[in-house]
Design goal:
It contains 37 helices and 14 strands. The chain has 1019 residues and is α/β, with parallel strands linked by helices. The chain folds into four domains: 214 residues, MFS general substrate transporter like domains (Growth Hormone, Chain: A, Up-down Bundle); 239 residues, Growth Hormone, Chain: A (Up-down Bundle), CATH 1.20.1250; 246 residues, Rossmann fold, CATH 3.40.50; 224 residues, no CATH class. An eight-stranded mixed β-sheet has the order 7-6-5-8-9-11-10-12, with helices on both faces. α20 links the parallel β8 and β9. α4 packs across α5, α5 packs across α10 and α31 packs antiparallel against α33.
């Protein structure tokens, strides 16, 4: 019966460990929202958590003899933790709102602001941390009083079950609870678990009579045992080295497994699981050990050697991850396999050393119990170990990582463990001198061999193998820079064609072609437009801020305006600023212009601590799947940024369209929409959006004056943007035209407390999802944006500059060639610019116009799709008249004439005619090919919407929805518009477009030109 009760206690303690790691994870999320993600903030969060744990353990140790029943006290502590957890979210929100809105604006910027924020952060979680620190000593004391026949085994099993629960808590929190319940729901669930544990433990405690504590001999309690401080020092040092390993391994594995929140959770769970297995292994051996101190010494030596072995093993993980990425299918099942494999790789690296680490605490505690220190030993050892862990964290983040690098940090920790183990073995050296000499020699040789012969390959580490399964080829690439910073590892690589990339933890954040006369990279278009567009909507802007430095090109372009008086650029990692110098002289103004001020800080912290407003704020964070970045796309962040915009100010937001799906983009835009009165989206390349948002009115039209500023004009010219038409072509949506489309996605707005991006974006990255259809649907295969936004081009002749990285520009260029060909009746000298398939279609259509015969329907559709969205209605109508009014057209059968009429109506933007023709054509769908049927359906719906008749558009969809089955964002957009009318419930077959997969990252940015209101009835 007692064994059965002990098993119940172990299960309950596992649940306690599970809830404890949920707290650590969720508190870190909360406090980073307030403190930011800078290295000192991360250090502070860990220091508060572990400092509170150490204090709680020390208090439990000091009061050990006063507890009448430690298990009942434990139940009371668990209940109190649960109650506080239920109140944490409203307390956090109220506290931070008061501090940000009322207190910090009255505090001088600098150290005083940090002191206020850190004090508040400590006050928010320190009481719970102290209580959590008391739980292990109290539970151990209660177990030893009731089940103390084999104290070593009991301590080891408690350590095992609590750690096992903690490992499960990390995964449960990250993969299940936060996605389902958000941060408030997750911490509330943890609180209810604590309350359930408290009640259960109280009932178990009542089943056994209260027993007195194990008495400690006078020699032990009077402090004359000289082994006590030495063993507590051992516990502290092992805590320090363990966290040095943890931080070093997590940074190392981030370059293999990725830097998403889920990747971090998998690594952390692997680390804790190793600690748990160490406790499980030692529990059968600890009570029968002839010399526990000697065993502890051998464990320390084994831990040091195992830690050193992680460095050569690490090199093998890159080809292993490449094989996993290449082999795993891009499905949900493949994503599960990828995560399991990532956890396996983390275990491969961490497990041997962490198993050893998991033995140390039970062994030290057992030794002190055996020496008569009683229950006080449990809390004392736990407090010392936790205090050592704090020192290890501070040293690793603030000193070890930036000064020693990954290899140096792990090697130092291993050398300390090995030296500690040898020191513990010294008393036994006389009995077994050969063993001791062999161990000492092995340690010295292992450390020396690691320092001399083990090299962490910067080419592999900079590859980002977790994304596409590729490892950099040294014959084609040079690593110019590779340094470990406090928050990230920064790299710069140069390819043989002149392309230079800056990377964060192996993930490319910017690329510039540095070869003289080389073609601009897509990223250059993004960064150029991020810097130039705000000057077009806010001419004369005097102050600006840029969140994220990257290559420095955005900062450089922003400073191209002579009206700008100051620019604050905020970068969290100083190594990135160092690395960006490899882009000089391309980004010279970022470093040399006296108006440029570079700040190493977190964006939220920077804005909170400085009472400044800006005419322009540019936000160019990394991809949302990167851990911590999702907070720069949240409702709370946009509300915060809006407070720092001057009247008439504009926010410029980069949103990547690769490694994300349309629903997640909708989540970002919904979050932004809640804080800004108007916004407009531009596409500098096929794979990126740049959103201009205004807080207090409509986004102003783009002023062409930027083309008269030499510095800005030169940057725009490099990325093939020569005039207002090139900018207008890149406008792909706005608040008005995308409102209903965004609402069609059930994804909620991304929030700090319900982090949609952090949870879902890693999956989208693995699936290689893309939202590029948002760029395509605006202008292809119909002029949808022109109709749905109510604006038409403000010029009579289309003249655009083709760009190799922006498909609509090449289509528009082809449209001008086709326009002249149809008007002249023959393909002229510019026909070589047409793609081969379009050239063949145009030749077939022009040949038919002179020879007659059956209408080449597909060729006619190909030419129409290429022409009509890019040309003005007058240009398209005039060009198409050659086909429609030809003698051959007059001789066509009614069905073919009706098809030409549909195309003519689209060209002329005659919505009613397009709807009527499409309705008749779709009545006999057997005569249409699937592409023709889908085009007719979209054209008919768009025509009805252009007439303002949403019911007619919706009826057309209801009748012919089968034609539009599949992933098609344009049809989803039209269905959302048609279903918006009162009395129309929605689409019978809603669409879920995802767009085609994409292999690699490209570019950023966007633009918009002059426009005028479209007449009612336009198609």
């Amino acid at each position: 019966m007692r064994a059965h009760r002990f098993s119940i206690v172990l299960v309950l303690f596992a649940v306690s460990g599970l809830s404890g790691l949920i707290y650590e994870s969720i508190w870190t999320h909360y406090l980073k929202l307030f403190l930011g993600h800078a290295a000192h903030a991360q250090t502070l969060v860990l220091a508060i958590f572990m400092g509170g744990m150490a204090l709680g353990s020390a208090l439990a140790s000091r009061w050990a003899g006063r507890w009448r029943d430690p298990m009942v006290a434990y139940a009371s502590i668990e209940a109190l933790i649960g109650v506080i957890a239920l109140a944490f979210h409203p307390l956090f929100v109220t506290t931070t709102d008061v501090l940000l809105g009322r207190v910090l604006p009255r505090v001088p910027a600098g150290v005083a602001v940090d002191a206020v924020k850190w004090t508040a952060a400590a006050a928010l979680i320190l009481p719970q941390c102290v209580l959590l620190g008391m739980t292990f000593p109290l539970m151990t004391g209660g177990v030893l009083r009731r089940f103390g026949a084999r104290p070593g085994r009991s301590i080891a099993l408690l350590y095992f079950t609590n750690s096992l629960g903690a490992a499960a808590g990390v995964l449960l929190s990250g993969f299940v609870l936060v996605p389902a319940a958000g941060l408030p729901g997750t911490i509330a669930i943890a609180g209810f678990l604590n309350l359930a544990v408290a009640v259960s433990v109280w009932f178990v405690a009542r089943l056994d009579p209260t027993v007195a504590p194990v008495a400690a001999p006078e020699a032990a309690t009077s402090g004359r045992d000289h082994a006590l401080p030495a063993l507590l020092a051992v516990a502290a040092l092992t805590g320090a080295t363990s966290f040095m390993y943890e931080i070093g391994w997590i940074r190392m594995l981030s370059l293999v497994l990725g830097t998403s929140t889920h990747a971090f959770e998998l690594m952390l769970s692997a680390f804790i699981l190793g600690l748990a297995l160490g406790g499980l292994w030692i529990q059968r051996r600890i009570d029968g050990a002839a010399s526990p101190v000697r065993l502890l010494g051998w464990v320390q030596v084994a831990m040091g050697l195992s830690a050193l072995a992680t460095l050569p093993v690490y090199g093998l993980t890159f080809p292993l991850m490449r094989w996993i990425v290449e082999s795993a299918p891009r499905t949900d099942g493949g994503y599960a396999l990828f995560n399991l494999s990532s956890n396996g790789i983390a275990l491969l690296v961490m497990l041997p050393a962490t198993v050893c680490a998991g033995m140390t605490l039970p062994l030290v505690t057992y030794v002190l119990l055996a020496r008569g220190h009683g229950e006080r030993a449990v809390g004392a050892v736990y407090a010392s170990n936790t205090a050592g862990a704090i020192a290890g964290v501070v040293f690793a983040i603030q000193v070890g990582m930036p000064v020693l690098g990954l290899k140096g940090l792990v090697t130092l920790g291993a050398a300390l463990d090995a030296a500690l183990g040898l020191a513990l073995l010294v008393p036994a050296a006389r009995a077994v001198p050969r063993r001791f000499a062999a161990a000492a020699g092995a340690c010295v040789l292992a450390v020396a061999a690691t320092l001399l012969f083990v090299h962490l390959d910067p080419y592999r580490m900079a590859s980002g193998v977790y994304r596409l399964g590729r490892i950099i080829d040294p014959s084609q690439t040079r690593v110019l820079y590779h340094r470990d910073g406090k928050t990230a590892t920064a790299s710069v690589i140069a390819e043989v064609d002149g392309r230079v990339l800056i990377k964060t933890n192996g993930k490319a954040d910017a690329a510039i072609n540095m070869a003289p006369g080389g073609e601009a990279e897509p990223d250059e278009a993004t960064m150029v437009l991020l810097g130039a567009l705000p000057h077009a909507v806010r001419p004369g802007a005097r102050t600006a801020a840029c969140i994220g430095f990257g290559s420095g090109l955005t900062t450089h372009v922003l400073l191209g305006s002579p009206s700008l008086e100051s620019l604050d650029t905020i970068e969290i990692e100083p190594r990135m600023i160092e690395a960006a110098r490899f882009f000089l002289p391309r980004v010279a103004r970022a470093f040399d212009d006296p108006r440029s001020q570079l700040h190493v800080d977190d964006a939220k912290t920077f804005f909170s601590s400085r009472q400044r407003t800006y005419d322009i704020i540019v936000s160019e964070p990394s991809n949302p799947w990167v851990s911590g970045v999702g907070g720069l796309f949240s409702e709370e962040f946009y509300r915060h940024v809006r407070r720092h915009l001057a009247p008439g100010g504009v926010l410029v937001q980069w949103i990547q369209l690769y490694e994300i799906d349309p629903g997640l983009v909708a989540s970002i835009l919904k979050a932004l929409d809640g804080s800004f009165a108007d916004w407009t989206a531009f596409a500098p390349s096929d794979f990126d959006l740049v959103v201009l948002a205004s807080a207090d009115g409509a986004v102003a039209p783009l002023a062409p004056g930027i083309f008269g500023v030499p510095e800005l004009a030169a940057e725009l010219r490099r990325v093939r943007i020569l005039g207002p038409q090139d900018l207008e072509l890149r406008r792909v949506g706005d608040r008005r035209s995308w409102a209903r489309l965004l609402r069609s996605y059930p994804t909620p707005p991304n929030s700090d407390y319900h982090p949609v991006l952090a949870e879902a974006a890693p999956r989208a990255r693995f699936l290689q999802a893309t939202a590029v259809a948002l760029v395509q649907a605006a202008r292809f295969p119909l002029p949808a944006l022109e109709v749905l936004s109510g604006a038409v081009p403000g010029w009579s002749e289309t003249r655009v500059t083709p760009s190799p990285h922006f498909t609509p520009s090449r289509r528009a260029d082809a449209a001008t060639v086709l326009q002249h060909a149809l008007r002249d009746g023959a393909l002229g000298r510019g026909a070589w610019r047409l793609p081969e398939d379009l050239l063949a279609s145009s030749q077939e259509l022009l040949g038919w116009a002179t020879r007659c015969g059956p209408l080449p329907g597909q060729s006619a559709q190909d030419v129409a799709l290429a022409m009509f969205p890019a040309l003005t209605s007058a240009e398209a109508t005039l060009a198409w008249r050659t086909i429609v009014e030809s003698p051959c057209a007059m001789a066509l059968a009614p069905h073919d004439r009706l098809w030409l009429e549909l195309l003519r109506a689209v060209a002329a933007r005659e919505g009613g005619a397009a709807h009527a023709a499409a309705s008749v054509l779709l009545g006999d769908p057997g005569r249409l090919s699937p592409p023709q049927a889908r085009y007719a359906l979209a054209a008919g719906m768009l025509g009805a919407l252009g007439e303002g008749d949403r019911e007619a558009a919706h009826r057309l969809w209801e009748r012919h929805a089968a034609v539009g089955e599949g992933d098609d964002l344009l049809l989803r957009w039209l269905v959302a518009e048609s279903a918006a009318r009162d009395g129309v419930a929605g689409a019978r077959r809603p669409l879920s477009p995802r767009g085609p997969p994409r292999a690699e990252r490209r570019g950023v940015a966007g633009a918009r030109g002059r426009a005028r209101r479209a007449p009612r009835g336009a198609c």
